[in-house]
Amino acid sequence: MAAATASPPPSALTKLISAHTPTDSTHPAHLHHLALQIQHNLQHQHLWTALTIHTHSPLAPYSPLPRPLISGLPPQRLYVHPDEQVELLAREARRRREGKKGEGGKGEEKVDREKPPPEREWVLPTHVREKWSLRRFGEVFEGIGVVPPEPTESGMDEERGATSGRGERQEQKADGEVNADVDTTGAVRPEGTEREGEKPESAANKWRTLKRVVLATLDDDSTVVYYVVHDGIVKPRQN
Amino acid sequence: MTSHRELFDPTNLKLAIHMRSLTETLHLHQEDERHYPDHPDEAKSAVKMADTSVSEPFPISLIANRYLLYDINTITYIRRKHCICGVLIGGLPQAPSQNVFCGIPLELMPEEARLLVEEGHAYIVEDVEAHMAGFLDMSEEERNAFMSAVESQGRDAAKAKKRRAGDNKERALKEKNLHRLVQESQTRQASASPDATNTADTDESLFAYPSPPASPPPPRASSTAPGEIFGITPSTSYPPLTMSVRSTNQPLPAVPRSYPLFRHLHSKGYFVTPGLRFGCQYVAYPGDPLRFHSHFLTVGMDWDEKFDLRDVVGGGRLGTGVKKAYLIGGKEENSEKADEDDDIRAFSVEWAYM
Amino acid sequence: MADVDEDLPQPTESNPPDDAEVDDEVPDFRLLSNFLKSNGAPGKIPKRGEKDFEPHPTAQQASTLEASRQAMHDAVAVTRVHVPKNHEIAVYEPSVNMAYVDKPRNTHYRTMGKAGTLDIRWPAIHSKDHDDGGSEQRLERSEEQQDEESRPSSDYGVPMSLQGAYATFIGFEASRGGSLTLERYTVFAPPRAKLGRAYWEIPPESLPPLELPSKHWNSGFFSKIWRRLSAPEPRHPHGRLASGPLVTPGLYRSYNDIYRLLQIIPSHDPTAPPTLSTADVPSEDEHPFHITYNVWKPNTPFKKTAPGPPDFYICVVSARDTFLPTSDQLNDLLATVPYDPPKMDGNLYQKLKHGYRNVIIAVVDQGITSFLRVADAGFGVEKLYERKPRGAGGKRGGFRGRGRGRGR
To answer: Out of B81, B293, B323, B337, which one is annotated catalytic?
Structure first.
C-alpha cells in the first residue's frame, strides 16, 4: 500500500529541468523551465544539434533578452525563401537537362533534388496560454541578429549538456556577469566568442536578410508547435 | 469542359439548369449585347457612355454609414490608378440569376474611403440628403430636360437592340436546343438519387440549385417594334444631380485600429480586401486580385494591444493551409523613424514544417 | 522529423490546397463575357480564373490583367433597360419610403421568385406642392390617374437611379429607424437572384425573440412541454458522487451499467425545450442575433398563405459591428427556431453535424458574406458505449465511425 502512494521516479525532462534551472537568473524560473522543455523537445524529437540557451543578447551592449532564447541547428534546412526556392528549382532543371545530354537520358531520374544546407535558427519558447503584443515580438527581435552566433566547442556537445556541468555554471553565474551567455553545458562563453558569432553568416545565404525566430509554443499536454515568425513582410512559401 | 456530353454529368446538371434560367432571363429582358467585347462600337453607341476619364476629386456616396460607388468609370479608375478594389455588391442586369459575378454598387471599406479622401482623390457625399433635395424639389424644366435625355437614351438602346435582332434569332434557336437538352437531363436525373447534388460541404450546397420546375416557361417574342423607347434605370444620379455640390464639413470616415497597417500595405503596392472569409481582417494581394493569389491573411492592431498566442498559432496554421502567411502588425510606438508611414512594423507567420 | 503533424493541412502535389475554391471573392470577368457570348451554351462555365503567385514584368501577364479588367468594366457598365413589353413603372412615395405600382403586369410581386425589373420614378410633383399635405395629395392624384388607360411614362417623375434606390430604401430607411440594412440586403439579393425561385420572408416579429413564434413549432407536443416546464430537468448527480466510489461493488452484467455510473459531467440536453437566457427585452445593439429571414428552398411547393416550415433560418449580422456571439446569445437564437432533430438511425457524425436546432448566420464583412451554420449538437445524447460495433471484418475500428483520422 505504501508503495502506491510513493511518487514515480522523475522523468528525464523533470530531471533536466530541475538540474538546469538557475536560481539567480535575471529571468524567472518558469521561463527557464519553458526554454529547457523546448530545448529537450528540439533535441530529442526533432534531432536538432548545437543547442544553446541564451539569456543575454549576443549583440552589444549584451543586455538581457526579454526571456531565455534557444539557438540551434536543425538536421535539414528549416526555411527556404520563395525566391531561393525558385533559384533552386531552376538549377535543378538545368542539371537535369545537362544530365540528360551527358548520359543519354540514363541518369535523369538520378538527379537529386538540391538540398540547401541547414542553417542555425533562433527559437522563441512560449506557452500557448500567454498573451503577447506586437511590442513584445519587437523586443525579442531587438535582442537578436539575423543569424545566431556559432556555438562554443562545448556547446556543440549537446549530449553532455543535458546531464552535466551544473555546479560549474552556478559558480560562474554568481559573478553576475552581464554579457555572459549560458549554454546547456553550463559553460560560460568569453565575450570574444560572442563577437565571433555575430560575424554575418548571412553572406552564406543571400536570401537571409531579415531576422526571424522559430516560435515554439508549448501546450499543457507537452505538445510543441513550431511557426516561423519573420521581422517584416515576407511573402509565403509555395511548397 | 467544352463538350455537350459533359452537360449530362450529374454534377453539371445544376449548371445546366442555371444556364437555362440565365438564358431565359437574358431573353426575358431582351438584353442588348453592349457588354460583348467584340461589338465595341455598339457598346459606345447604344447608350451614351460617360467619358471614361475620371476627374478628381470624385464623390463617394455615404448611406447608412457605408461608402458606395455607382459610377463604373470611377470603379475601374480607382482599381487601375489607386489599387483599390472595393467589393461589388449589386447584381448584373444582363446576368441576374447568378452570384459569381456581381455589379454596381461597389462597397468601399471605410479604410478605402478614408485613404481616398485623405489623399485628396475623393470626397464624401451624404446621398440621402443630396437625393431628397435634388429630386423632390426638382423644377419642371429640370425634369423635362432630364426626361428627354433619358428618352433619347432609351431610343438608342432600342435601336441597338434591333440591330442585334438577327443574332438574337440565332441565339433563340440555340436556346431551344438547350431547353431540349436540359429536359432530357431532367428525366435522367429523376431516376438518379435525389441527394446526388447535395453532398458538397460549402455554401454552394446551402443554396444548391433545386430540381427544375415542372413546366418550361412560355416562349417570348424577341423582336423589337420600330420607334420603341426602352425605359432606363441609370446607375448613378449624376446627372441630374451635379457633382459640384461638395460638402466640405464631412468628417473623415471612421476607421478601425488596423488602419495604419492597411495604409502601409497599400503604400507598398498591395491590394487589400476584407478578410473575414479567411478569419482575418484583410487579405493582401501582391497585385490586382483579378490576376493574383493573395499572400497574406492580415490582422492590424495597436502596438501594445494584447492578443492570445493561440491566435497567432491558429492564424499561422490557417494561412499555411491555403499557401498564405499570417501577418500581424501595427504602428510602432517609440520608434525613432521620422517618416509617419515608415513606422509600421509587421511580422509574418508561417508554419515551420517540423 | 519524428513527428509530422498529421493534422496540419499539408499541401502536397497529390493534395494541393484548394486555392481556386477558397481564394477568391474576385472572379475573372473574362469568363462572364465568354459565358454570355455563348448564350448559355454548355462548356462556357463561369468558374474562377487561373491566377499567378506574384507580378512579373512580363507583357503576357500585363495583357491578361488588362483583359480581365476590361471584361469587368464592360460587364459592370451595362445599363439597366426596360423593354416596353415588360416595362413596369413604380412611383416612390417619400412619406412611407416605399414605391408603389399602379397596375402590376408581372406576377413577381406575388412570388418574389421570378426575376423582373422595375422602373422606379421619383414623384412628379412641383416643389410648390411639397408641403405637409403633399403626400396625401400625391397619393390621391396617383389614384385618379390609375384609371387613365394609356398614360405616357413621361407623366411619371424622372427615373430613380440605382444610386437613388440605395439612398432611399437603405440610406433614408436607416434615418427613419427602418430595418433594411445594407448587410441584410446584401445577404438577400445574391442568393435570391441565384436561386431564381426561392422564397424569402422576413419573420413577422424579428425582434425580440422572447415570444416563441408558435407557428414554428412543428407539433403541439413540444409546445405543451415547453409550457409545462420552466427549466430543463436538472441532472443531479447521485449521492455517491460526494463520497464515492463511483462504481459501487456489485454484480454488473453489462459494461453500459458501469459507463452510466461513470458519467459524472452534466451535459446540455438539446432534446429538452429551450430556455431563454435573457429576462429583459434587449435592444438591437445588445442582441444582434435574431432571425432575419425565413427561407424556403425553391423546389418546395410554396403557397404564400400556407408556406409550411421554412428550410432555413438566416440571421444576418455585420462583421464589423458584431462580436462573436456569446453562448447566451447563441442559446437564445437557437431557442427561436423549431426543433429539428437529426435522423435517429443516422451516422454519429451526421447526427452531431445536423444537431437538434439550427440557424444559418450570415456574417457580412464589407460586402462579402460568409454563411455559417450553427447547430445545437447533442454531444451528451450520443452515448459512445451504446454504439454497436460495426459488423464482421471491423476488427479494430468498431467504435470509430466514418470520421477521418484518429477517431477522437
So the answer is: B293
Domains of chain A, residue spans? 9-80+117-230, 82-115
DSSP C17: -
Give the closest of A45, A238, A239 to C3, CB-based.
A45
- Positive/negative CA dihedral, B134, B140, B142, B146: positive
Torsion of CA A93, B352, A117, A105, to 10 degrees: -20
User: With a cut of 0.85, is the ipTM above it?
Assistant: no
Tell me which residue of B277, B283, B288 sits closest to B324, measured CA to CA: B283
Q: Can you tell me the distance from the alpha carbon of B51 to that of A212, in angstroms, rounded to the nearest whole number?
A: 51
Distance CA C317, CA C332 (A): 15
- Distance separating the N- and C-terminal Cα atoms of chain C: 24
Chain B: touching chains (3 or more CB pairs < 8 Å): A, C
Judged against a pLDDT cut of 60, whether residue B204 lies above it is answered with no
Question: How would you classify residue B269: left for phi > 0, otherwise alpha for psi between -120 and 50, otherwise beta?
Answer: left
pLDDT given for residue C300 in this prediction: 62
Please name the residue that has the C-alpha cell 438574337.
B168
Query: Could you tell me if B99 and B138 are in contact, meaning their C-beta atoms sit under 8 angstroms apart?
Result: no
Q: For every one of its 239 residues, what pLDDT tens digit does chain A have, with 9 covering 90 and above?
A: 445 567 889 999 999 998 888 888 889 999 999 999 999 999 999 999 999 999 999 998 899 999 999 999 999 999 999 999 999 989 888 888 887 666 554 544 555 677 889 999 999 999 999 999 999 999 999 999 999 998 765 443 333 333 333 333 333 333 333 333 444 443 333 333 333 334 444 446 888 999 999 999 999 999 999 999 999 999 999 86
Longest dimension (CA), chain B: 75
pTM over 0.80: no
H helices then E strands: how many in chain A?
9, 6
- Tell me the three state secondary structure of residue C354: helix
Contact B290 C68 (CB under 8 A): yes
Q: Identify whether B285 is a catalytic site residue.
A: yes
Nearest to A121, CA basis, from A73, A183, A58, A53: A73
What domains are defined for chain B? 259-349 (3.40.1350.10)
Which of the 8 DSSP states describes residue C287?
-
**Residues C232-266: tens digit of each pLDDT:** 333 344 567 777 788 888 888 888 888 888 888 88
Residues of A with CB under 8 A from a CB of B: 46, 74, 78-79, 126-135, 137-138, 214-215, 217, 225-238
The pLDDT tens digits of the residues spanning B21-57 come to: 333 333 323 333 333 333 333 333 333 333 467 888 8
How many CA within 13 A on the CB side of residue B18? 28
On the 0-12 / 13-18 / 19+ scale of CB atoms within 10 A, C327 is: exposed
The cell numbers describing A58, all together, are: 549576443
Does the CB of B85 have a partner CB in chain C at under 8 Å? yes
Query: Taking Cα atoms as reference points, which of B312, B66, B322, B16 lies closest to residue B183?
Result: B16
* Residue where the block lists cell 541547428: A73
Structural Rg of chain A based on CA atoms: 21
